[in-house]
Amino acid sequence: MxxxxxxxxxxxxxxxxxxxxxxxxxxxxxxxxxxxxxxxxRSLNLLVEFGGNVYVWDEEEAALIAVxxxxxxxxxxxxxxxxxxxxxxxxxxxxxxxxSKTGKYMALVCQARxxxxxxxxxxxxxxxxxxxxxxxxxERYFATAGGDGQIFQxxxxxxxxxxxxxxxxxxxxxxxxxxxxxxxxxxxxxxxRNQPTALQSAVDLTIAAHSKAAYxxxxxxxxxxxxxxxxxxxxxxxxxxxxxxxxxxxxxxLKENGDVQCLYPxxxxxxxxxxxxxxxxxxxxxxxxxxxxxxxxxxxxxxPSTLVVATAAGFIYHCVVLDQEGVDxxxxxxxGGALQQTLYVYEGIDLEFGDINEVEEAxxxxxxxxxxxxIGFLVLHEDSVVNNRYHxxxxxxxxxxxxxxxxxxxxxxxxxxxxxxxxxLHLPCKVEHVVATPSLQESxxxxxxxxxxxxxxxxxxxxxxxxLLGDCFAIRLLADLxxxxxxxxxxxxxxxxVSPLRRLRMDDFCSKIKRMLDRTKLPLLRSVExxxxxxxxxxxxxxxxxxxxxxxxxISKLEQVRDEVVKRSALLKRHxxxxxxxxxxxxxxxxxxxxxxxxxxxxxxEIERGQVRLLERLKHILRELQTQHxxxxxxxxxxxxxxxxxxxxxxxxxxxxxRVQVKIDYRADPTEEEPKMVLSSSQxxxxxxxxxxxxxxxxxxxxxLKRLKTESGL
Length: 714
Fold this sequence. Notes:
- By secondary structure, the protein is α+β, with helices and mostly antiparallel strands.
- It has helices spanning 2-13, 69-74, 139-145, 358-364, 405-414, 500-517, 537-627, 634-668, 681-712, and strands at 47-50, 53-58, 63-68, 81-87, 94-99, 105-110, 114-118, 129-136, 151-156, 165-170, 174-179, 188-191, 204-207, 213-216, 223-234, 246-255, 260-263, 281-283, 294-300, 306-311, 315-323, 330-331, 341-350, 379-382, 389-394, 397-402, 430-436, 448-454, 462-467, 472-476, 524-525.
- Strands 1-2-3-4-8-7-6-5 form an 8-stranded mixed beta sheet. Strands 9-10-11-12-14-13 form a 6-stranded mixed beta sheet, with no helix packed on it.
- The longest helix has 91 residues, at 537-627.
- The termini are far apart.
């Protein structure tokens, strides 16, 4: 699998599309340090990867060249190349390519122009050449701005519903929000100049041309970069247009003097003020505010947020954004717009450029530019695969920086029950110089013109770098930093059977070996080709000595690891010998216990049988004693009473049964007739006389009733 991936990396490096980036006129020597911003942009990047496709800008044809890495992984010899032409064509050289979040638009950033290119779907287009619609943003402003319209930074808004909002920072310290559906003018213009004081953050709202809003904010120094932070809940006091809280992306602004400020811009709310915070307090404080030549800013997608601030002198600071006490999720802003946040500078690193030191040479040449006009020496690139890793490109190559302590810090903050401090929190970040251009002091400068990271895990995670001469470097990256240094033994199968304490000790030893084996990766060397220039013996000797010392350091590390492993092996051997002795003793004890167990089992069976015999004998003896005893026991007396009571009840029940039986027999015999009554003659006469008298009385009563009715008229 690794061999096939190495072949794939070689095929990526040999692609002809990277030769389109070759610009011989932009190569310059170390002695010619007074090159202008037009010769070397502060963030030149003509390479973009999205959806498994690599896009390269061809300046001669004014078109995008696209190659599918998925097809290249399947067929490394015959990849399909597609050309995406612009209509109309950009009028100035393109310096940067910025793809939108959904891949629908591509921003072609020039020195003083921004062209938007509508991207087609490469899965549906089968033609090798496709014409795409393009248009210019804010053409009227950039045509009349002159020197104040140079573009410093361009970023797509991460929460735009249709992915149509673009934030642009220009050299006049203005932040403009463009809508690609209305490209004529900016929807909002936030000016960062001519504000009296930073503490007085009440915004002066003015209405600009075309009914667009402009805001005048702080101007303590030139703004050089900005980046979006996480979404935060902003209270209703911030945006008076709504009555409820809303989610707004935090915007960090970097000034040349090192100050970092926060801004909370909200889309479609151009007529309401936007508050800019005062410079965030940095702890621990520094006299020079951690440099006065800041040039680049990057916000890592971690919890808590981490800001990476780079300076033109080659220093990079890692700052953790912390909320002050009293802030619980919802941000309450006062009239001054003060944000309750601070920056904790966790660490600072000084990038090693080999023998190159432009600052010292500029001073030797009498250059009085103390503020470094070329502030774009360091350009930070986000790594979307690993949150705690980023890349830094510059005129001397590419550095990869990994913040191993961020993951442990996130685990500690997310789990409130377990406050276990990991050893990686005390380790500094890991810096690797993956590409070095140039390698010697006398060599010509060879800037990087394209850096991108392949994010498709099916293809393979890799870093693609292209130099100004069109040389491509495809470097394999790790998708998971938990096993950054592979070990020679596998502990995954034994994790389930090992006790937690032993696994903890094993992890400590493994972590120690990992730290000792952590080596500095040698960068890939590349310089400008010159037919009439050869390295002198002194240069070769210096290069040989430098690499020899590096290999000696690595060999000394290996020797230390060998000594540690030998000590560990000797200790484990002693433990093994002691455990084997104990194991033999345990086996002998087990065998003796087994023999005793059998004897005890036989004895138990014999005892059980004797117990049964004794019980039967005891019962027989008791019966004999009871028969010979003349006095009734209590049980016998009670049993006799019960028998007498049962006899009495039986006699009573038998009498009742006889009665019931007689009744049943009487009712069941139908043949028996009742005796008839015979009356005498005198009795018959009396009965007839009584009936006659009663009849007369009834007739008299009826006559009386009729008379009464007649009299009463009824």
